[in-house]
């Protein structure tokens, strides 16, 4: 049975408290100090309700958790991250940390900070956190508590060459090991949204970025497996959701994003037109044509083609489990004209993929919307 990472519920407060106490006690601190710690440090239902809290479940048993709080406009605090001692060494801590970073980015924070026990500081340093200061520990004989933080801004790279290949000899182990649970998850999804379709898509499992060259290998997977991976908190941390998108730019320099329609798997989210790679993007030689995918998705969602404008830079955006290849297309039309044409195109579609076009003149225009971190980073980069 697979493990899942999901939002904690208030009824799990005691279980999370027990995980915290067991994990802290694992370091061998003075028994009297631990008694004081257990008395004063607890996870309450109110804490779970107040701030995002992630839990990893092994079947129904909580084995680790993380709690995140927004401190100010730019900074989030990783308030807790603990894993049961008997579950150490399985990558659960790194998984929770990546989940916490995702939540912080969704909060529009560019920095995640934490206070680390000296025993855990090397773990955080390994994952890109650096110390800014320290303070004495409350435990007898313990080394200082480290104040640490990390910049969460998605990394953007200019790309001049792309070389993507299909690996037909391999399959996705995550999907094979969790096939029954994936089927159950799919049944649940289509009960809520019958318009979903379980076709074949491509998943990136190996890639390199070197001197403006992006290369990678992909495997064929079922869309249902992809959605389970997404819904369970990206448990296979080696996989990446590679996709292409077109950033439409108007003659005024504004960006035009789309709000996804209610019948899509990303309903309500706002980002540049694009989508998953699929079997249509595989060439006879086994290459994967991401530019072909970009052109197809643009036309399907907006009615525009690449020939309608001037092609600009190609950017790769690394954003945790997501990796976007974005191509800029400048149209000699105003923002309102582009939006109007997209609305007219959608009015003639039986089930348009976009609910509406969203004109982006600054980051502030994205505030009312649900926007993936990579799309926000692209906006900051292109409108800077």
TrEMBL record:
This is Acetyltransferase, GNAT family. It comes from Pseudovibrio japonicus. Keywords: Acyltransferase, Transferase. It holds the Pfam family Acetyltransf_1. InterPro entries: Acyl_CoA_acyltransferase, Bact_Acetyltransf, GNAT_dom, NUDIX_hydrolase-like_dom_sf, NUDIX_hydrolase_dom. Residues 238-384 form the Nudix hydrolase domain. The keyword Transferase applies. CDD domains: NAT_SF. The keyword Isomerase does not apply. Residues 3-153 form the N-acetyltransferase domain. It comes from the Bacteria.
